[in-house]
């Protein structure tokens, strides 16, 4: 195998038998009834997988420490985006209507900001509890302040947030439950209900641009 590997690198040719693969249809659902219900998966030989790893390690190990493995000889320079003659500044994240939009389209920065802001209001909730206010008053304070922070524009970001980010926000809700001694709705349930409400509004509004994307069951 070592001789084949070295000869392949020298000639720049991959053995044809290594490139053969078997295509296996994998069902997408328990009871497939159509060709679209299958996902094609290519099963490559074990020798080829080992060969790919060796080639990758061979090339990356020969790169100097100052060069990135994804470095290109000629970097592409993209033109700046201009609106009304003004160049749009490129930033890592941008806050719009209370939502932090990151350049990589992840929501970790947004959820971290929400969790930090909500935790600050937990202090005031604890102070109200220390004054021995009834649970109903504490719950109303939570709904008006902390819940409104955690669920602001939730239909935009919650569905694509990571499990860790959701758990961080849910921990704030559990802390509020212990303070108020009441059961509070979890964020997942609130997200589902608001998505359903939004979908119903779109279905009823024939002028909405996304109306044609919905059909009643």
From TrEMBL:
Superkingdom to which the source organism belongs: Eukaryota
Classification of source organism: Eukaryota, Metazoa, Chordata, Craniata, Vertebrata
Record GO terms (molecular function): 2-oxoglutarate-dependent dioxygenase activity; methyltransferase activity
Pfam families given in the database record: ALKBH8_N (PF09004)
Ranges in a coiled coil: none
Entry-linked InterPro entries: AlkB_hom8_N
Domain annotation Alkylated DNA repair protein AlkB homologue 8 N-terminal: ranges: 107-148
Name of the protein: Alkylated DNA repair protein AlkB homologue 8 N-terminal domain-containing protein
């Amino acid at each position: 195998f070592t001789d084949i590997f070295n000869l392949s690198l020298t000639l720049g040719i991959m053995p044809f038998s290594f490139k053969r693969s078997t295509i296996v249809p994998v069902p997408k659902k328990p009871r497939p009834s159509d060709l679209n219900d299958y996902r094609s998966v290519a099963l490559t030989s074990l020798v080829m997988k080992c060969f790919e790893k060796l080639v990758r390690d061979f090339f990356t190990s020969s790169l100097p420490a100052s060069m990135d493995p994804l470095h290109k000889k000629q970097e592409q320079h993209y033109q700046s985006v201009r609106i009304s003659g003004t160049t749009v500044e490129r930033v890592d994240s941008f806050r719009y209507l209370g939502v932090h939009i990151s350049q990589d389209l992840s929501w970790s920065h947004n959820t971290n900001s929400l969790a930090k802001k909500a935790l600050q209001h937990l202090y005031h909730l604890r102070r109200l509890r220390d004054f021995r206010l009834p649970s109903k008053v504490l719950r109303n304070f939570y709904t008006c302040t902390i819940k409104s922070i955690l669920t602001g524009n939730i239909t935009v970001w919650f569905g694509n947030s990571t499990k860790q980010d959701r758990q961080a926000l849910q921990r704030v809700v559990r802390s509020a439950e212990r303070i108020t001694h009441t059961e509070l709705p979890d964020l997942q349930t609130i997200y589902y209900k608001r998505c359903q409400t939004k979908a119903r509004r779109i279905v009823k509004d024939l002028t909405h641009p996304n109306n044609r994307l919905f059909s009643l069951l």
